[in-house]
Inverse folding.
């Protein structure tokens, strides 16, 4: 010890300007923290608010219609009264459009993402990716008329007896709608795979195709699966495109050449019609809405489970 004493650098002995800066820093961090908390709280409260509206408005409907008849009935005919409210035709129509859109968009979106991430030059990527994402900015009603006046006449060349509004046309236009979502998210997931994995495989003599198929895609599997489920959830809730392209015929059919009606299309048709508030037909839109809400929630839970199962964690030495 040299006999000297070190200055006490506690908050009370700091210069005034440093104390003010410290207080301002703590205050700004506290404001940001509470602002983020309020935003998260609003999101949660909004979800519970939507659920409350659906449940409260569905209760009067289920007082008049048995839940068993609603979830197992195969006939949906709200008029004439008292009507028949079997939701299976609407559920089947919704799932047909969703599955058909997935069959169209998922392979094409994944392959385009692989090309953009692994094979395309920077110049080609800078042109193709914005052009592909431009499809996401087209209004859904435009897609509906595109399916009605372009896709269906094109399909008639191969299937002459196809109806004007049909499942195939609706699935194709919805698939085109979700294609940018699949491609963009898959490309981001593939690009996030560490470069060292690719270089290690190349060092062992693997080809480009082997590296992509056996190293990169398995490593990005969690993000790819999440993009698939998110895109299918988007297709599940699509409204205007399927209303125009797929029709408004609540029939329990699996014929892709016939018109069907989805749950969202029925909600649109009823809300713009002459259904009086408080009637069974009016309350049925909330029962259909909560059914769609549950299906979407289940898909999101499945997506979270898959992402957790296939997630890859990379540690750096």
């Amino acid at each position: 010890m040299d006999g000297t004493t070190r200055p006490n650098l506690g908050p009370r002995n700091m210069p005034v300007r440093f104390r003010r800066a410290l207080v301002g820093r703590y205050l700004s961090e506290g404001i940001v923290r509470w602002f983020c908390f309020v935003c998260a709280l609003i999101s949660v409260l909004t979800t519970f608010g939507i659920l409350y509206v659906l449940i409260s408005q569905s209760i009067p409907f289920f007082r008049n219609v048995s839940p068993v008849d609603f979830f197992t009935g195969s006939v949906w005919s709200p008029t004439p009264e008292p009507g028949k409210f079997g939701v299976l035709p609407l559920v089947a129509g919704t799932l047909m459009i969703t599955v058909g859109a997935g069959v169209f968009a998922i392979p094409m979106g994944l392959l385009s993402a692989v090309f953009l991430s692994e094979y395309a030059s920077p110049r080609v990527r800078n042109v193709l990716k914005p052009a592909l994402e431009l499809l996401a900015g087209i209004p859904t009603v435009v897609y509906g008329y595109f399916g009605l006046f372009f896709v269906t006449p094109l399909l008639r060349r191969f299937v002459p007896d196809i109806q004007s509004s049909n499942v195939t046309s609706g699935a194709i236009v919805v698939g085109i709608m979700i294609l940018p979502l699949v491609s963009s998210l898959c490309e981001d997931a593939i690009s996030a795979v560490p470069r060292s994995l690719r270089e290690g495989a190349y060092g062992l003599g693997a080809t480009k195709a082997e590296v992509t198929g056996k190293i990169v895609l398995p490593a990005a599997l969690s993000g790819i699966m999440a993009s698939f489920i998110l895109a299918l959830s988007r297709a599940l809730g699509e409204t205007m495109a399927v209303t125009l392209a797929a029709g408004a015929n609540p029939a329990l059919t699996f014929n892709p050449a016939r018109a069907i009606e989805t749950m969202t299309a029925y909600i649109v048709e009823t809300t713009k019609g002459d259904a009086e508030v408080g009637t069974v037909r009016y309350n049925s839109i909330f029962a259909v809405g909560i059914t769609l809400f549950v299906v979407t929630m289940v898909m999101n839970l499945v997506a979270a489970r898959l992402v957790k199962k296939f997630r890859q964690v990379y540690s750096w030495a």
